[in-house]
Design goal:
about 400 residues; WH-like_DNA-bd_sf (chains A, B); homodimer; 3 domains; Nucleotidyltransferase, domain 5; WH_DNA-bd_sf (chains A, B); DNA-binding; alpha/beta; Arc Repressor Mutant, subunit A; five-stranded mixed β-sheet
Chain lengths: ~400, ~400
DNA sequence: GTGATTAATATAGACTCTAAATTTAGGTTC
DNA sequence: GAACCTAAATTTAGAGTCTATATTAATCAC
């Protein structure tokens, strides 16, 4: 009835539980004394020391010179610190036009970043090759070897089931390498954890973005196409085929009609307006009509641009409303290529949103920029490492 | 890092874990021998016996006369059985027009059922009074006392947060007694677990309905108003203010426009059609136009009624499509007052659904009838009991 | 009855934790 | 620099839990 581990509970399980707890405290706190750990965990000194010795042997914890925290009375404490260099993780974003690789230590601090454009990619093999190049570059910058990488989180713009399989249902994604994960493992040896990009985005925002401390959270990737990642009670929603957060239903939403994101809609509307030669706007002066140009013109007071943005905001509000009502997050974070500029839209979006529900979610704009997916990928990899910490054998060279 | 209990793990935790595991096996299996439990849990005979003795002392398990399973060789085994009468639970559905109470044993078998019409209720106190009456009746029928009831699950048609608070945002619900839970606890003494009715419906379908074994599940209550309960990976979605599954977004969905359910829409469309005196249909013969009459007429081949149902099916398909795409359940179960009749709509709904997504959820009609919420309420109460089994003190009179 | 078979019971040992007594490594004070 | 103070480390004893193995018990077959 009560949930229980799969195997029988033997005395060794206690040590495992307590080691996990202690490691959890150490991984989020800084340097800690034995006494500090006693207070944080409720364990006895004898146990704390025994567990710490185990963790030191395993390589997860290092012991510093004895010392004290200013107040200097009594025998100096043993001081323990999480060994954030016991291993490394990779966070890889494989987008339509670009791949971004982050290398991080076990605290999630970024040690290196590398990227490659994928816009000219023709075959899956080419794409894998460029990802490989970026990974090699990132590892080289930080002087980290493959054997020290404990896991890699990889985000792709396709549904991914809970087992990490890329599910391709439409023609577009058939051009994608669904075996990407195995290829990377073959090349480098580390475990590859595939996940949908919007799902990783919500992990990223929950960890290091606007959604910190908010366990009912949605992220709306709003660049060229709308996509969303959903979190309820701190847990990522997946759906039966990895499709949770899929936005195709927008075709059925009045005033939306398709899954085009903010950037694309802004561009399309600008082009449509400019087709009328009598319309006067500074948008005529730009060499190419892009969303950025429209945002800039609006910021400069151009009435036509402002009108377009009002319309885009109204449309976005409807998207947020549907998500907000059905899934009921506390906060919806708007991310993706246009996130920064989308700040201009916020007041309009919030105003419109109030018209659809009396309990609208809060809306914020991502501060993670184009790293939103790769940061989430790092978090995804760290989750895996934390889950398996006591089973992993570290390469003790670190 | 690894999830761990709040308190420090002491040797007593092992016994707790193993007791929980053993109780879980016993509560789902029937009579089990010591050897059977050894195989099911991986524990040693010594441990199994020690734990069983504990559980017998606590009242959760009863020991039968030694005996054997046909194959008769060797010393007879001790035989253990989950004591499904160690306590009882209530499942209470408080709907707009009616309250239904189920009394069940700890295996979830229904022992008594009672109900009261709430259609003439004017005040919260009256409603509570009628619920109380129904509870008293159910307990009396099965000769169960309040002190033997371990928990009651209560479903209401309002958002309920994770702490069990009814959240009233609109005027309609202000007429509801948001303090209902405390009133019932005062009256009877047992813990009251409030939950949204559609959320309970999905628990019910997952437990004893069409959704058994399906962990990504949605239930669409489709009677007078659409409401939904969502489950991802076996876990109920709540949202930040208990609003997950809220259908108000349907106002924004083309071809839907409001949250009216199948019964109401069917009725409304029939009335609209009949307003044209030139239309010939057997619906003119009925004394009052109801959804049931339209379904019956359609079943009898009435073209006008069939046309209405096609339209209602198309509308319902859009509702299912939005849910199915965004949350991606494996199965959507249609429940509520019209569930049985809605079987007629299934082929149309499925056909339309295929037009909206290439990976539509399966659609089924609930077989739990009007007990869908109360059955879920029983499951909700049982979940609570299982969670707290080893902390509860049973009234040993049972 | 005697033997075979299966399970219960008893005993010894290992691992984990807590709790309390003892020792240690610094400071401070005179 | 010796005596004292303090907080932490270390040691020791004890209790709870599990496994593993040996012993005993109950039943059936012959």
């Amino acid at each position: 009835m009560t949930s229980a581990p799969v195997t029988a509970a033997t005395p060794a399980l206690l040590r495992r539980v307590n080691a996990g707890k202690l490691l959890g405290v150490l991984s989020t706190a800084g340097v800690m004394t034995g006494t500090g750990l006693i207070q944080a965990t409720g364990l006895t000194r004898a146990t704390v020391h025994a567990v710490c010795n185990d963790l030191i042997d395993m390589g997860w914890v290092v012991e510093l010179d004895p010392g004290r925290d200013d107040t200097a009375v009594g025998r100096p404490s043993r001081r323990f610190e999480f060994n954030s260099r016991a291993g490394y993780v990779l966070g890889i974003d494989i987008g339509a036009g670009r791949t971004t690789v982050l290398l991080a230590d076990l605290r999630g601090e970024t040690l290196a970043k590398a990227g490659r454009s994928l816009s000219s990619v023709k075959t899956p093999a080419e794409r894998t090759g460029l990802v490989h190049e970026a990974v090699v570059e990132a590892l080289a910058v930080a002087d980290v070897r493959d054997s020290q990488v404990l896991a890699a989180g990889v985000g792709v713009a396709a549904p991914v089931d809970r087992a990490g399989n890329i599910l391709v249902d439409d023609e577009f994604w058939r051009r994608f390498d669904t075996d990407l994960g195995h290829r990377l493992t073959e090349l480098h040896g580390w475990p590859v954890l595939l996940e949908n990009d919007a799902n990783l985005a919500v992990l990223g925002e929950h960890w290091r973005g606007q959604g910190q401390g908010i366990d009912d959270l949605a992220v709306l990737l709003a660049g060229e196409r709308f996509g969303s990642g959903l979190m309820d009670s701190g847990r990522l929603l997946h759906g039966s085929r990895g499709g949770a957060g899929e936005m195709l239903y927008l075709k059925l939403v009045e005033g939306v009609g398709d899954t085009h994101g903010i950037a694309r809609t802004t561009r399309d509307q600008a082009v449509a307006v400019l087709a009328d030669p009598t319309v006067r706007t500074r948008l005529r002066d730009v060499s190419e009509v892009t969303a950025e140009e429209v945002f800039a013109a609006a910021a400069a007071g151009d009435e036509v641009a402002l009108g377009i943005l009002r319309s885009v905001a109204a449309r976005t509000a409807r998207v947020v409303a549907t998500l907000g009502i059905l899934v009921n997050p506390e906060l919806v974070v708007i991310g993706g290529a246009v996130a920064e500029a989308a700040g201009q839209l916020l007041p309009d979006i919030e105003e419109q949103l109030a018209g659809y529900t009396s309990t609208p979610p809060r809306v914020a704009v991502s501060s993670l920029g184009d790293a939103i997916v790769s940061v989430g990928a790092v978090r995804h990899a760290l989750n895996y490492v934390e889950q398996h910490a006591l089973d992993l054998v570290l390469t003790r060279s670190a």
